[in-house]
Write a structure and sequence with these properties.
alpha+beta; two-stranded antiparallel ribbon; 21% strand
Length: 295
Protein backbone atom coordinates (compact mmCIF):
# COMPACT_ATOMS: atom_id res chain seq x y z
CA UNK A 1 0.00 0.00 0.00
CA UNK A 2 1.26 3.44 -0.88
CA UNK A 3 -0.72 6.27 0.71
CA UNK A 4 -4.36 6.83 1.56
CA UNK A 5 -6.42 9.99 1.38
CA UNK A 6 -7.40 10.84 4.95
CA UNK A 7 -9.35 13.96 5.92
CA UNK A 8 -7.11 16.39 7.72
CA UNK A 9 -9.77 18.55 9.36
CA UNK A 10 -13.43 18.51 10.25
CA UNK A 11 -15.84 18.60 7.34
CA UNK A 12 -18.94 20.76 7.23
CA UNK A 13 -21.32 22.00 4.57
CA UNK A 14 -18.92 24.70 3.37
CA UNK A 15 -15.71 22.68 3.55
CA UNK A 16 -13.88 20.81 0.83
CA UNK A 17 -14.72 17.08 1.10
CA UNK A 18 -11.07 16.04 1.39
CA UNK A 19 -7.91 17.94 2.05
CA UNK A 20 -4.53 17.10 0.64
CA UNK A 21 -3.47 13.45 1.00
CA UNK A 22 -1.10 12.52 3.79
CA UNK A 23 1.06 9.40 4.06
CA UNK A 24 -0.27 6.28 5.74
CA UNK A 25 1.32 5.03 8.96
CA UNK A 26 4.48 2.98 8.55
CA UNK A 27 2.83 -0.23 9.71
CA UNK A 28 0.34 0.11 6.85
CA UNK A 29 3.12 0.54 4.31
CA UNK A 30 5.47 -2.44 4.80
CA UNK A 31 7.16 -2.26 1.41
CA UNK A 32 7.30 1.30 0.02
CA UNK A 33 8.36 1.89 -3.52
CA UNK A 34 11.55 4.04 -3.60
CA UNK A 35 10.73 5.34 -7.05
CA UNK A 36 7.30 6.57 -6.00
CA UNK A 37 6.70 10.12 -4.93
CA UNK A 38 6.38 11.00 -1.27
CA UNK A 39 2.61 11.35 -1.52
CA UNK A 40 0.68 9.16 -3.93
CA UNK A 41 -2.99 8.61 -3.14
CA UNK A 42 -4.59 5.27 -3.91
CA UNK A 43 -7.22 5.15 -6.59
CA UNK A 44 -10.01 2.78 -7.50
CA UNK A 45 -9.01 0.20 -10.08
CA UNK A 46 -11.59 -0.42 -12.83
CA UNK A 47 -12.94 -3.94 -12.95
CA UNK A 48 -11.80 -4.50 -16.53
CA UNK A 49 -8.25 -3.24 -15.91
CA UNK A 50 -5.25 -5.21 -14.71
CA UNK A 51 -3.62 -3.25 -11.87
CA UNK A 52 0.12 -3.24 -11.52
CA UNK A 53 1.51 -6.02 -9.38
CA UNK A 54 -1.50 -8.34 -9.81
CA UNK A 55 -0.53 -11.99 -9.76
CA UNK A 56 -2.44 -15.23 -9.69
CA UNK A 57 -2.09 -15.36 -5.90
CA UNK A 58 -3.22 -11.84 -5.04
CA UNK A 59 -6.24 -9.68 -5.59
CA UNK A 60 -5.99 -5.89 -5.64
CA UNK A 61 -9.32 -5.10 -7.27
CA UNK A 62 -10.69 -3.41 -4.20
CA UNK A 63 -10.92 0.18 -3.02
CA UNK A 64 -8.10 1.46 -0.79
CA UNK A 65 -7.77 -0.70 2.34
CA UNK A 66 -7.98 2.40 4.54
CA UNK A 67 -10.74 4.95 3.99
CA UNK A 68 -11.14 7.35 6.92
CA UNK A 69 -13.88 9.91 7.41
CA UNK A 70 -13.31 12.50 10.11
CA UNK A 71 -16.68 14.12 10.72
CA UNK A 72 -17.85 14.69 14.31
CA UNK A 73 -21.54 13.91 14.47
CA UNK A 74 -22.16 16.91 16.75
CA UNK A 75 -21.27 19.32 13.93
CA UNK A 76 -24.08 18.21 11.65
CA UNK A 77 -25.82 14.94 12.67
CA UNK A 78 -27.87 14.60 9.49
CA UNK A 79 -24.97 15.16 7.13
CA UNK A 80 -22.63 12.96 9.17
CA UNK A 81 -25.07 10.06 9.04
CA UNK A 82 -25.67 10.55 5.32
CA UNK A 83 -21.94 10.51 4.57
CA UNK A 84 -21.42 7.41 6.70
CA UNK A 85 -24.28 5.56 5.02
CA UNK A 86 -23.06 6.50 1.54
CA UNK A 87 -19.54 5.32 2.36
CA UNK A 88 -20.98 2.04 3.63
CA UNK A 89 -23.11 1.52 0.52
CA UNK A 90 -20.16 2.29 -1.76
CA UNK A 91 -18.04 -0.26 0.10
CA UNK A 92 -20.76 -2.88 -0.18
CA UNK A 93 -21.13 -2.23 -3.90
CA UNK A 94 -17.38 -2.61 -4.41
CA UNK A 95 -17.33 -5.88 -2.49
CA UNK A 96 -20.24 -7.33 -4.46
CA UNK A 97 -18.37 -6.52 -7.67
CA UNK A 98 -15.84 -9.18 -6.67
CA UNK A 99 -18.37 -11.96 -7.31
CA UNK A 100 -18.06 -12.05 -11.13
CA UNK A 101 -14.26 -11.76 -10.88
CA UNK A 102 -14.07 -14.66 -8.43
CA UNK A 103 -16.30 -16.80 -10.62
CA UNK A 104 -14.23 -15.95 -13.72
CA UNK A 105 -10.92 -16.84 -12.04
CA UNK A 106 -11.56 -19.84 -9.76
CA UNK A 107 -7.85 -20.71 -9.75
CA UNK A 108 -6.86 -17.38 -8.20
CA UNK A 109 -6.69 -16.70 -4.47
CA UNK A 110 -8.84 -13.81 -3.29
CA UNK A 111 -8.18 -12.40 0.14
CA UNK A 112 -10.89 -11.97 2.75
CA UNK A 113 -12.47 -8.57 3.39
CA UNK A 114 -13.73 -7.27 6.73
CA UNK A 115 -16.64 -4.94 7.30
CA UNK A 116 -16.27 -3.49 10.82
CA UNK A 117 -18.84 -1.04 12.13
CA UNK A 118 -19.31 0.25 15.66
CA UNK A 119 -22.55 1.95 16.70
CA UNK A 120 -24.15 0.15 13.79
CA UNK A 121 -27.64 1.41 14.63
CA UNK A 122 -26.67 4.82 13.20
CA UNK A 123 -25.77 3.38 9.77
CA UNK A 124 -28.12 0.42 9.39
CA UNK A 125 -30.34 0.47 6.30
CA UNK A 126 -32.80 -2.09 4.99
CA UNK A 127 -34.19 -2.25 1.51
CA UNK A 128 -37.38 -4.26 2.15
CA UNK A 129 -38.85 -4.21 -1.38
CA UNK A 130 -35.83 -2.40 -2.83
CA UNK A 131 -32.87 -4.28 -4.37
CA UNK A 132 -30.41 -2.68 -1.91
CA UNK A 133 -30.09 -3.03 1.83
CA UNK A 134 -27.80 -4.41 4.49
CA UNK A 135 -29.81 -7.61 4.83
CA UNK A 136 -29.29 -8.36 1.13
CA UNK A 137 -25.57 -7.58 1.31
CA UNK A 138 -25.01 -9.74 4.41
CA UNK A 139 -26.87 -12.65 2.83
CA UNK A 140 -24.42 -12.52 -0.11
CA UNK A 141 -21.32 -11.63 1.89
CA UNK A 142 -19.89 -15.17 1.95
CA UNK A 143 -19.63 -15.34 -1.83
CA UNK A 144 -17.26 -12.31 -2.17
CA UNK A 145 -15.43 -13.47 1.00
CA UNK A 146 -16.58 -10.59 3.17
CA UNK A 147 -16.70 -11.02 6.95
CA UNK A 148 -19.07 -8.45 8.50
CA UNK A 149 -18.65 -7.60 12.19
CA UNK A 150 -20.99 -5.00 13.67
CA UNK A 151 -21.63 -3.77 17.21
CA UNK A 152 -24.80 -2.11 18.43
CA UNK A 153 -25.99 -0.85 21.79
CA UNK A 154 -28.99 -3.18 21.99
CA UNK A 155 -31.66 -4.78 19.88
CA UNK A 156 -34.02 -1.98 20.87
CA UNK A 157 -31.71 0.69 19.45
CA UNK A 158 -31.55 -1.22 16.17
CA UNK A 159 -35.31 -1.68 16.12
CA UNK A 160 -36.00 2.02 16.71
CA UNK A 161 -34.02 3.08 13.63
CA UNK A 162 -35.58 0.63 11.16
CA UNK A 163 -39.16 0.67 9.86
CA UNK A 164 -41.65 -1.97 10.91
CA UNK A 165 -40.32 -5.46 11.58
CA UNK A 166 -37.46 -5.13 9.12
CA UNK A 167 -35.02 -5.40 12.05
CA UNK A 168 -35.90 -9.10 12.28
CA UNK A 169 -34.82 -9.67 8.69
CA UNK A 170 -31.56 -7.84 9.35
CA UNK A 171 -30.88 -9.62 12.66
CA UNK A 172 -31.26 -13.10 11.20
CA UNK A 173 -28.44 -12.49 8.72
CA UNK A 174 -25.90 -12.50 11.58
CA UNK A 175 -25.20 -16.16 12.23
CA UNK A 176 -22.98 -15.50 15.26
CA UNK A 177 -24.40 -13.29 18.00
CA UNK A 178 -22.61 -12.19 21.18
CA UNK A 179 -24.84 -10.71 23.89
CA UNK A 180 -23.30 -8.65 26.66
CA UNK A 181 -25.29 -7.09 29.50
CA UNK A 182 -28.73 -5.94 28.35
CA UNK A 183 -30.58 -3.32 30.36
CA UNK A 184 -33.96 -3.15 28.61
CA UNK A 185 -36.61 -5.84 28.82
CA UNK A 186 -37.26 -6.06 25.06
CA UNK A 187 -33.64 -6.82 24.18
CA UNK A 188 -33.34 -9.34 27.03
CA UNK A 189 -36.57 -11.06 26.04
CA UNK A 190 -35.58 -11.19 22.36
CA UNK A 191 -32.13 -12.58 23.21
CA UNK A 192 -33.72 -15.21 25.43
CA UNK A 193 -36.07 -16.25 22.62
CA UNK A 194 -33.18 -16.43 20.14
CA UNK A 195 -31.36 -18.86 22.43
CA UNK A 196 -34.37 -21.15 22.22
CA UNK A 197 -35.88 -23.63 24.62
CA UNK A 198 -34.87 -27.07 25.81
CA UNK A 199 -36.53 -29.86 27.78
CA UNK A 200 -35.53 -29.93 31.41
CA UNK A 201 -36.55 -32.23 34.23
CA UNK A 202 -38.56 -30.43 36.89
CA UNK A 203 -38.94 -31.88 40.37
CA UNK A 204 -42.39 -32.15 41.92
CA UNK A 205 -43.00 -32.84 45.63
CA UNK A 206 -46.23 -34.17 47.15
CA UNK A 207 -47.05 -34.44 50.87
CA UNK A 208 -50.17 -36.21 52.13
CA UNK A 209 -51.44 -37.10 55.59
CA UNK A 210 -54.11 -39.66 56.46
CA UNK A 211 -55.55 -40.90 59.74
CA UNK A 212 -57.82 -43.71 60.97
CA UNK A 213 -60.58 -43.44 63.58
CA UNK A 214 -60.37 -39.67 63.49
CA UNK A 215 -62.21 -37.63 66.10
CA UNK A 216 -62.54 -34.01 67.20
CA UNK A 217 -60.46 -32.83 70.12
CA UNK A 218 -62.55 -31.17 72.81
CA UNK A 219 -59.54 -29.05 73.82
CA UNK A 220 -58.38 -27.69 70.43
CA UNK A 221 -61.37 -28.37 68.21
CA UNK A 222 -59.18 -30.00 65.57
CA UNK A 223 -59.30 -33.44 64.01
CA UNK A 224 -57.05 -35.94 65.75
CA UNK A 225 -56.24 -39.56 65.14
CA UNK A 226 -54.23 -42.06 67.09
CA UNK A 227 -53.26 -43.87 63.87
CA UNK A 228 -51.99 -41.34 61.33
CA UNK A 229 -49.84 -41.77 58.24
CA UNK A 230 -47.65 -39.13 56.55
CA UNK A 231 -46.61 -39.76 52.94
CA UNK A 232 -44.00 -37.78 50.97
CA UNK A 233 -43.31 -38.36 47.28
CA UNK A 234 -40.95 -36.80 44.73
CA UNK A 235 -41.36 -37.08 40.97
CA UNK A 236 -39.78 -35.59 37.83
CA UNK A 237 -41.47 -34.47 34.64
CA UNK A 238 -40.07 -32.87 31.45
CA UNK A 239 -40.82 -29.21 30.83
CA UNK A 240 -39.75 -26.97 27.94
CA UNK A 241 -38.00 -23.88 29.29
CA UNK A 242 -35.66 -21.16 28.00
CA UNK A 243 -31.97 -22.02 28.01
CA UNK A 244 -31.20 -18.52 29.32
CA UNK A 245 -33.95 -16.48 30.90
CA UNK A 246 -34.16 -12.71 30.76
CA UNK A 247 -32.65 -12.42 34.24
CA UNK A 248 -29.43 -13.99 32.98
CA UNK A 249 -28.95 -11.30 30.33
CA UNK A 250 -29.66 -8.41 32.68
CA UNK A 251 -27.25 -9.69 35.35
CA UNK A 252 -24.22 -10.44 33.18
CA UNK A 253 -21.05 -9.08 34.74
CA UNK A 254 -18.09 -7.45 33.06
CA UNK A 255 -16.36 -9.69 30.47
CA UNK A 256 -19.25 -12.18 30.49
CA UNK A 257 -21.50 -12.94 27.56
CA UNK A 258 -23.95 -15.38 26.05
CA UNK A 259 -22.87 -16.52 22.57
CA UNK A 260 -24.86 -18.08 19.75
CA UNK A 261 -21.98 -19.25 17.56
CA UNK A 262 -21.70 -20.58 14.03
CA UNK A 263 -18.52 -22.39 12.99
CA UNK A 264 -19.03 -21.97 9.25
CA UNK A 265 -20.71 -25.34 8.76
CA UNK A 266 -23.07 -26.01 11.67
CA UNK A 267 -24.71 -23.81 14.30
CA UNK A 268 -23.54 -24.35 17.84
CA UNK A 269 -25.86 -24.32 20.86
CA UNK A 270 -25.96 -21.12 22.93
CA UNK A 271 -23.32 -21.10 25.63
CA UNK A 272 -22.08 -18.93 28.47
CA UNK A 273 -18.77 -17.37 27.45
CA UNK A 274 -16.04 -15.63 29.47
CA UNK A 275 -14.18 -12.86 27.66
CA UNK A 276 -10.70 -11.45 28.08
CA UNK A 277 -9.93 -7.81 27.23
CA UNK A 278 -7.30 -7.34 24.54
CA UNK A 279 -5.17 -5.08 26.73
CA UNK A 280 -4.67 -7.78 29.39
CA UNK A 281 -2.25 -10.68 29.30
CA UNK A 282 -3.69 -13.26 26.84
CA UNK A 283 -1.88 -16.07 28.64
CA UNK A 284 -3.94 -15.54 31.81
CA UNK A 285 -7.36 -17.07 32.02
CA UNK A 286 -10.50 -15.13 32.82
CA UNK A 287 -10.57 -16.45 36.36
CA UNK A 288 -6.94 -15.48 37.00
CA UNK A 289 -7.61 -11.95 35.78
CA UNK A 290 -10.75 -11.80 37.91
CA UNK A 291 -8.84 -12.93 41.00
CA UNK A 292 -6.13 -10.33 40.41
CA UNK A 293 -8.68 -7.57 40.00
CA UNK A 294 -7.93 -6.90 36.33
CA UNK A 295 -11.57 -7.15 35.28
Amino acid sequence: MQNAIIPKRTLSLNDTPFSEPIPCPSWLNPAPDPSASSVKPLRFAPMNAEPAGLTAQTDRRLPPPVCALNFPIAMNPGLAKALGVMMKLDFQRSVLNRIPVIETHPERYFRQVFFLCDEYQHFATVGENEPTGDEKFFSLSRQPKCIPIVATQSISSLKSTLPGDSWRTLLQTFRTKIFLTLSDDFSARTASELCGKEDRLKASYNLSESGHDASISLLTGRAISHRANLTASKSYYPQSDFRFDTKTFTELKNAQSVVIAYDGFNPMPPAFCYLKPYFNDPNKSYFQQLEEGLL
